[in-house]
Amino acid sequence: MTKRLIEAALFMTSTPLSTEELAKVCAMGDIGLVRRYVEELQKEYFERNAGIEILKMQNGYKMKVMQDLESQVANLASAPDISAAILKTLALIAYEQPITQSRMVKERGNRVYKYIKTLLKEEFISAEKHKRTKLLKTTPKFKDYFQINDLGELKNIKVKLDKFIPKQNSDKS
Q1: What average pLDDT score do residues 112-129 get?
Q2: Which residue in 137, 98, 107 sits closest to 120, CA to CA?
Q3: One domain, residues 59 and 112
Q4: Using CA atoms, how far apart are residues 8 and 108, in angstroms rounded to an integer?
Q5: Phi and psi dihedrals of 42, rounded to 5?
Q6: 18 lies in the same domain as 54
């Protein structure tokens, strides 16, 4: 039952879940056992050549479609879990990278702090200390998610991101 509950929790969320969060969902105190169940699920998916996998990320575990199948099923995905304002922030970071957080605030306003926090949590960007601000740039996960093979393709980033930006909501443009 617990392993099934872990699987269901990973399936239901679009953000990575830590072993502690999974233990809480399962009402378990044994984080090592939770980790073992996740590893068993990963092995089961691998052995049966499943169409999904459970990835270990910096801040937890996440379920996703296998990379070799993504292009065939991407059009079936519902609206992205990322708002238009966050995607516009990500596009600016991608196009101008590396870019300072202070410049992002000047260009996008104070709300950008919240957007950057979300992008860091989702591991689309990384931040490193740079003088009194942070230097922002995209991560390999960004390239995988948006199917960008080479940073030279970023000139076309607007075209690639437009299909992910919902038309109805928009914070600061």
Answers
A1: 93
A2: 137
A3: no
A4: 37
A5: -60, -45
A6: yes
Helical packing angle, 31-47 and 2-12, nearest 10°: 70
Which tokens hold the place of 118? 């979300």
Show the domain range for 9.
2-75
The model scores a pTM over 0.90? no
Amino acid identity for residue 172 in this structure: K
pLDDT tens-digit profile of 24-53? Answer: 999 988 899 999 999 999 999 999 999 999
The 3-state DSSP class for residue 35 equals helix
Which residue, chain included where needed, has tokens 């995209």?
Answer: 138
CA–CA distances in Å: residue 72 to residues 43, 68, 81, 150, 160: 24, 8, 20, 21, 16
- Which amino acid is located at 69 in the chain? L
Cα angle 139-145-146, degrees, rounded to a multiple of 5? 95
* 68 and 96 fall within a common domain: no
Q: What is the mean pLDDT of residues 8-24?
A: 89
Given a cut of 90, whether residue 16 has pLDDT beyond it is no
For residue 170, what pLDDT is reported? 44
